[in-house]
Amino acid sequence: MSTVQRNMSLTGEPPKTINTQQKLASAIGLIGLAVLFLALFNINFPNKTLWLTASLIAIGGGTVWFSIAAYGNKHEGIKNDGVYFKSLTSKGFWAWVLGITLTLYYVVLYWFPQYLGLVQDGENKGLVALFDPLSKFLNGGPASQWFVYGTLYTVAILAFGIKFILKYRHNKYEKLRTYSVMFFQLGFAFLIPELMQRLNSDSFSLPYYDLKNIWPLNYYNFEQYRVDQFISAGDIGLALLIFGIASIFIITPILTYKYGKRWYCSWVCGCGGLAETAGDPFRHLSDKRQIAWKVERWVIHSVLVFVVLMTTAVVHSYLGDDSSKYWLTKVVFLISVAVILTAVFAGTFIFKREELQKDARYGAIGYFVIIISLIGFHYFSGKTLFLFEAETLRQSYGFLIGAVFSGVIGVGFYPIFGSRVWCRFGCPMAAILGFQQRLFSRFRITTNGGQCISCGNCSTYCEMGIDVRAYAQKGENIVRSSCVGCGICSAVCPRGVLKLENGPLEKRIDSNEILLGNDVDLMKYVNN
Ligand code: SF4
Ligand code: SF4
């Protein structure tokens, strides 16, 4: 009887199964998850502290043991064996199961937290109640759905971070930046904000603040209730507010100039942290087509314009008109926004015009004209800023971008669209950093084109869908807005062609100097 031969490999069989240790590790991890599921269905565990600890240790420990069993006995070097043959990593049945489960989880988290057990005025139930002891230990209060989410998010980054380090243990850069994202997630995103909540009392209240979350990623940072809290919290609050503003205008531009957007997207950010660790097995699923690149540029910059409009409207809505009380009045604020945008736009067109592609020039002009006309329209007519109420804009942004795009699509669809859908198509922070990386940064990936054997590993594993091989074949520097500097293209290259470097701005973008076979009139050289 004939069987269907599904293996396309020329060199050997794809891995058929997992070894015994991996099976045991999977069982332990699944038992840990089962505890959470049972809690979700309102099983009342008698000793919550014990059960929660056991569950988290089982999930984290199972993942780490699985990774040790997978990579421990193998030589150092990248192991992506059989990635296109496994159902989970090749958009098969299990990929859809995981994608739908994650998506449903996000839908419940954002819009139906009561099904997770959240009770507004009373004792929590279900899954949220299981996390109450940990929440009380850290911040002194009962858990919320966001505490549950933050804890599981941190456990995922830590456990899969160790897996990532084992997998890429031959590469110092990959190890260092993974330690970095694990540190920032555990310390800055989880522990510090939770402990800061402990300082709050009836007379003193700091807003929940993940210090590494910079506007426009934390689009809500300058909403009135937060600014009020910052100001009423005295010196500490004021320092945090100033830090939030300095992060945008001083820290981010300096670090991006020196190192490119990788300092944030691959070393600090929580979204990037999850994508690089838990999302690592899905990085090859990113869309590499040119049309995806075009869509990416329009969508991500539209989100950026949206968040600029929304934040301007929100801040404008709560500022006063009386200049004798505050120097920052509505008018001063609007003029400042217009001046900053005009300066950025004019500087780009005067100094960097040649480095912008045609559609980027048209897009920049279009967006600039729209924003400035809306500000001018409001200024001269007194009509509602940007034609909509600030609150409507804020709610629309929070729903469409903050929840649906970044959570439901961004993480829920890891197994289908790859791990960086949000970072590539939706994150306004990535848009700003990418803009600067392309035009005002020392970062580039250099290519030693003569060594390239066109194997395509680099393009396959670029999570941002960049066709790295096309640049390598030409020996051209890679200076792309979307590149998050993860370094995986360089790590998987069997020929050492690619190198992430910081260097002088001159001749950084060298595409004009590349000679392609098609472009060169070889007879000219023969005749000379
Ligand atoms: S080009 Fe390389 S460093 Fe940049 S995002 Fe792609 S894989 Fe990462
Ligand atoms: S992985 Fe290296 S050798 Fe292979 S195509 Fe990319 S640059 Fe060339």
The DSSP helix count reads 22
Gyration radius, rounded: 25 Å
What's the N-to-C terminus distance? 67 Å
pLDDT < 50 runs, ≥5 residues: none
Proportion of helical residues:
55-70%
GO molecular function, one term: 4 iron, 4 sulfur cluster binding
Keywords: 4Fe-4S, Electron transport, Iron, Iron-sulfur, Membrane, Metal-binding, Transmembrane, Transmembrane helix, Transport
Pfam family, one: Fer4_5
Domain 4Fe-4S ferredoxin-type: 443-471, 474-503
Short note summarizing the structure:
The protein is mainly alpha-helical and 528 residues long.
Describe the structure.
InterPro entries: 4Fe4S_Fe-S-bd (IPR017896), 4Fe4S_Fe_S_CS (IPR017900), Electron_Trans/Redox (IPR051684). GO terms for molecular function: 4 iron, 4 sulfur cluster binding; metal ion binding. The chain crosses the membrane at residues 24-43, 49-72, 93-112, 146-166, 178-196, 236-257, 298-319, 331-351, 363-381, 396-417. This is FeS-binding protein. It contains 22 helices and two strands. The protein is mainly α and 528 residues long. α1 (20-40) packs antiparallel against α2 and α7 packs across α11. The protein has three domains: 14-74 and 112-198, no CATH class; 205-438, no CATH class; 442-513, Alpha-Beta Plaits, CATH 3.30.70.20. It starts with 19 loop residues before the first helix and ends with a helix. The model has no long low-confidence stretch (mean pLDDT 86). The longest helix is centred in the middle third of the chain and has 29 residues, at 290-318. The protein is 59% helix and 2% strand. One iron/sulfur cluster binds next to α19 and α20.
